[in-house]
């Protein structure tokens, strides 16, 4: 997928690529701080980098959960990040009309896991001719993602990748089956969503939990089995994040993690 992104650096480094940023766009200042820090690290280790931030959070446990600072305001911040740092940007979309709206501001459209079977949404994203990432539903087998990829390609868009984010394990946990990565690579490049794979959804409080202490474990395993890219949500202070703070990586821990993962990548080449 990254070969279709003009602004992405280090395409020829043979390293994994990284999609990283906050769960949601909370403010311009916060987005710029995170992007600047990640870009410095990824340049140091020659990691192709895409900045991620949700312009809208539609899948929330409670009606009073944070959903965003305003659609166009958040999208404008994403565009500013791309322009200032010369990096591609991505955001998730939830409704058909979001595809054409978000495509005016970002380079990659992400389809959420719960919506990956929504044909009209996938077709709308594909028709923008932006790159499209497809999160594997927690309820789907790796083999079933072939059909999601085909929907995008049959709509005239070859620029797609799959994001693995774990499978439902009981009611309140997720588990990653690493056998699925090479299976899905038969259909498209595969990105391992490290932080969402460690979510603990459906908690009695109505706030999703997580196991951030296992981020390094999951990330190392993903690189070791040959994932093309990683997806990591990060924040300067996850305890204050307005969304998904329980499973995010603290920003000051990112460099140490990426240094280790780069060495794992070099070892398997």
UniProtKB/TrEMBL annotation:
InterPro entries: Aldolase_TIM (IPR013785), DAHP1/KDSA (IPR006218), KDO8P_synthase (IPR006269). Pathway: Carbohydrate biosynthesis; 3-deoxy-D-manno-octulosonate biosynthesis; 3-deoxy-D-manno-octulosonate from D-ribulose 5-phosphate: step 2/3; Bacterial outer membrane biogenesis; lipopolysaccharide biosynthesis. Its EC number is 2.5.1.55. It catalyses: D-arabinose 5-phosphate + phosphoenolpyruvate + H2O = 3-deoxy-alpha-D-manno-2-octulosonate-8-phosphate + phosphate. One of its GO terms (cellular component) is cytoplasm. It is found in: Cytoplasm. This is 3-deoxy-8-phosphooctulonate synthase. Residues 8-266 form the DAHP synthetase I/KDSA domain. Belongs to the KdsA family. Gene3D superfamilies: Aldolase class I (3.20.20.70). Keywords: Cytoplasm, Transferase. It is an enzyme of class 2 (transferase). One of its GO terms (molecular function) is 3-deoxy-8-phosphooctulonate synthase activity. It comes from the Bacteria.
């Amino acid at each position: 997928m990254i070969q279709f992104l003009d602004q992405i650096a280090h395409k020829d480094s043979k390293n994994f690529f990284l999609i990283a940023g906050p769960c949601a766009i909370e403010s311009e200042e916060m987005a710029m701080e995170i992007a600047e820090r990640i870009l410095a690290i990824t340049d140091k280790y020659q990691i192709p980098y895409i900045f991620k931030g949700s312009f809208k959070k539609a899948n929330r446990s409670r009606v009073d959960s944070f959903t965003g600072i305003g659609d166009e305001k958040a999208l404008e911040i994403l565009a500013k990040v791309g322009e200032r740092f010369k990096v591609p940007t991505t955001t998730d979309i939830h409704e058909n009309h979001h595809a054409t709206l978000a495509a005016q501001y970002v380079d990659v459209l992400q389809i959420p896991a719960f919506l990956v079977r929504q044909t009209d949404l996938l077709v709308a994203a594909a028709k923008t001719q932006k790159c499209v990432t497809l999160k594997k539903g927690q309820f789907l087998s790796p083999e079933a993602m072939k059909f999601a990829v085909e929907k995008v390609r049959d709509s005239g868009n070859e620029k797609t990748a799959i994001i693995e984010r774990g499978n439902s394990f009981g009611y309140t946990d997720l588990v990653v089956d690493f056998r699925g990565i090479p299976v899905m690579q038969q259909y498209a490049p595969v990105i391992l969503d490290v932080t969402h794979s460690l979510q603990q959804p459906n908690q009695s409080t109505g706030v999703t939990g997580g196991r951030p202490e296992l981020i390094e474990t999951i990330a190392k395993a993903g690189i070791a089995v040959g994932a093309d890219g990683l997806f990591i949500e990060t924040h300067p202070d996850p305890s204050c994040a307005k969304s998904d703070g329980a499973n995010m990586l603290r920003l000051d821990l990112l460099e140490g993690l990426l240094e280790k993962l780069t060495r794992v990548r070099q070892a398997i080449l």
